[in-house]
Write a structure and sequence with these properties.
flat; two-stranded antiparallel ribbon; 111 residues; mainly alpha; 2 domains
Length: 111
């Protein structure tokens, strides 16, 4: 099926909603097999064919992505601060329950 990489978004490749199964498989040893696992309306059996030790990526390989992530987080924080300031200055409110409401009818030519 493929490799399962331990981490926040671990999943079994090709199997929907498989985060819990991935966590279980990551605790198993080579040549171990699972009992049937019910996932997304189907049953699966897994056997661990091979394991590899986790590796830590060298800083040089991840530096650019870390910088990009930090920049994006900073930008998002600044955007939220601006939104908060603008809303406070204009005494604006957001009615979140209206997001699921039906759209207002379009104005007619008579209006």
């Amino acid at each position: 099926m493929g490799w399962i990489v331990d981490g926040e978004n671990a999943a079994v490749p090709g199997v929907p909603d498989s985060a819990e199964a991935a966590r279980r498989l990551l605790t198993m040893s080579q040549d171990q097999a699972t009992s049937p696992m019910a996932l997304d309306g189907a049953y699966y059996l897994f056997k661990i064919a091979e394991t590899r030790p986790a590796e830590t990526a060298p800083f040089e390989r991840v530096e650019a992505s870390i910088q990009q992530r930090l920049l994006m987080e900073r930008e998002m924080g600044l955007q939220q601060q601006l939104i908060d300031r603008l809303m406070a200055a204009e005494n604006a409110r957001i009615f979140e329950d209206a997001f699921g409401a039906a759209p207002a009818p379009a104005p007619t030519a008579e209006e």
